[in-house]
TrEMBL record:
This is Transport permease protein. Residues 21-249 form the ABC transmembrane type-2 domain. It is a multi-pass membrane protein. It comes from the Bacteria. GO terms for cellular component: ATP-binding cassette (ABC) transporter complex. GO terms for molecular function: ABC-type transporter activity. GO terms for biological process: response to antibiotic. PROSITE patterns: ABC_TM2. The lineage of its organism: Bacteria, Bacillati, Actinomycetota, Actinomycetes, Pseudonocardiales. The chain crosses the membrane at residues 21-45, 57-78, 99-128, 134-161, 173-199, 219-241. It is found in: Cell membrane; Membrane. Keywords: Antibiotic resistance, Cell membrane, Membrane, Transmembrane, Transmembrane helix, Transport. Belongs to the ABC-2 integral membrane protein family.
Amino acid sequence: MTGDSITMLRRKVKHSMRYPSLTIGGVAMPVLMLLLFVGVFGRTLTAGLDGTDYVDYVTPGILIVSVTSCCIITAVSVSSDKVAGIMKRLRTMAISRAAVLNGHVLGGVIQTAFSTALVIAVALLLGFRPHVDVLGWLAAAGILLSLMFALSWIAAAVGLVARGPESASNLPLPLTFLPMLGSGFVPTDSLPGWLHWFAEHQPFTPITEAVRGLLMGTPVGGTAAIAIAWCAGLAAVGYLWSRRAFEKGHKP
């Protein structure tokens, strides 16, 4: 990481600490969903899981929702800098162009990791009991961090193409709902025909299954490799899209 990227990262972190409302908003939705599904529907849904406690089943899905929710923060932050003219101003300074987006993306990863840790803490209070050793935790964290990195780049691109912060906060919403249309909340076998097919072939299902398997100590097979491949593909798309949008929006 270059010195310019570190400077932009420091700016992003200080801005996040000064205005914590976006971070709180990113945590609020997954926590409320966790309370709703575990507290209200948990006992009923546990009956269909062959003895698995629903809080253990749904927590990995909620963690993925937490990651997708927090990518909105990066999109809004990038869009705010663009609309306020800060990016154009930074362009006139003797700093690396790549550092501008790097700071947003890395800062977004840190914010999302902090929010996800809070969601895990709430899940533990509600009875989540992962059956995992240190290596399992590290592997699950690696997949979650890979997803955070990938979605942060996509969010940066969304922030650059959005007309303003309001639009930037709405455009990533489909990403938030995609984990709900996979195996995040119920097994895909319980879904109707067309939805079952979609759930099996969308990126968040293997990512959720890999995290769930690693945290609960069940075999993951090739699911982890598929999850990493999806994360790498999403990161590549987000990076190329954001770089193109950045250069296009800052041509002299």
